[in-house]
Amino acid sequence: MPPLSENRPDSEPSTSPSTPQVIYVHTSRQQPILWLIAGLLAVIAVALIFRGGSSSPFNLALAEPPVPSHAGLEGGRGIYAFTGQLSAKSYGLFMMDADSGTIWCYEIQTGGPKGGPTLRLVAARSWIFDRYLEEYNTGDPIPSEVREMVQAQREQRVNRPPTTRPSARAGSDNTSSATIEH
After folding, report:
1. 31 Cβ neighbours under 8 A, 6+ residues apart
2. Bridge partners (DSSP) listed for residue 79
3. Positive or negative, the Cα torsion across 125, 129, 134, 136?
């Protein structure tokens, strides 16, 4: 059998069609590194899928703790902040601490010491006991008057006899009437 020719720059390739050519493919030294990276990524993926706890790899935010099923039933907690208009030309930052039962407001003023906006405390108070008031600083009708009107309306509805109306077929010989209860 004839010797195999090598495809190297220092050797000439054989021109014979029956002679196979051997081509050397130089392997890169980076190939083991790529296999190592692929293996580490596989280990990380398996660790994320099978890790303990109630977290799942399918959660949208893995850094956030899972929300219990009864969330929202115990009421809001923490500090809430929102903005609003105080007057025609001024705006404020309202803050509420649901845990301590306080609310306060800062007015956002322009033209501070360095030309930027500043905050000035406008008002603050506790609303812990305010929620127990039923009628304070209300316009007419006050809540107790509304309650009395609703009770009177309900009593009229219960004590009223059923009303009769003529049949829907006006002009017919049928003289029956429909009974309507409210």
Report:
1. none
2. 97
3. negative
Place of tokens 């039933």: 73
Q: What is the pTM of this model?
A: 0.40
Contact status, residue 124 vs residue 104, Cβ threshold 8 Å = yes
Query: Using CB atoms within 10 A of its CB, is residue 107 exposed (0-12), middle (13-18) or buried (19+)?
Result: middle
pLDDT tens profile 98-126: 889 999 999 998 877 788 888 999 999 99
**If DSSP states are collapsed to H, E and C, what string results for 88-141?**
CCCEEEEEEECCCCEEEEEEEECCCCCCCCEEEEEEEEECCCHHHCCCCCCCCC
Q: Summarize pLDDT for 151-181 with one digit per residue, the tens.
A: 999 999 888 777 776 665 555 555 555 555 5
Residues written for the chain: 182
